[in-house]
Design brief:
7 helices, 143 residues, mainly alpha
């Protein structure tokens, strides 16, 4: 029965806003990521954010966002993300980012290439296809 089972990342979740702010600040100090980056990671991973961020030495964010590249790499390596649509719509929730850019989608494609999920010569077409798909399916404009 999953009725009483916690969602991943809900273990020891702070019950007060002040406690959440302290937790995010502590993670930022211990990992070297900015408060904004940790805040984005927290929204996606909850209490698992520190474990994921602490494994990365790369402090880069995806272009035009505060989403650490480390989260995209984690999704590709550990959460079976193998397509741009999966990263954008489900793993990183970038579908809801106000100003999702082609540069961001392109960086995600590069990460999929690095992870062996996308062939380098298919990356450019994948970006164009995904931008068109986001517009057609969701009305999402990608700058």
């Amino acid at each position: 029965n999953s009725r009483t089972r916690l969602f991943p990342g809900a273990e020891n979740y702070p019950s007060r806003t002040e406690s959440l702010d302290v937790a995010i600040s502590q993670i930022a100090r211990s990992t070297g990521f900015s408060l904004a980056q940790v805040g984005q990671a927290w929204k996606l991973l909850g209490t698992r954010a520190e474990a994921v961020l602490s494994k990365s030495t790369d402090r880069e964010s995806l272009p035009g966002t505060n989403v650490p590249v480390a989260l995209a790499r984690h999704a590709i390596e550990h959460e079976w993300a193998a397509k741009l649509a999966d990263l954008i719509e489900r793993r990183l929730m970038l579908l809801y980012h106000q100003r999702l850019s082609r540069a961001c989608v392109g960086r995600l494609a590069d990460l999929l290439v690095e992870g062996g999920k996308l062939l380098a010569d298919e990356a450019r077409n994948s970006v164009s296809d995904e931008v068109a798909r986001l517009a057609a399916r969701f009305g999402k404009r990608v700058d």
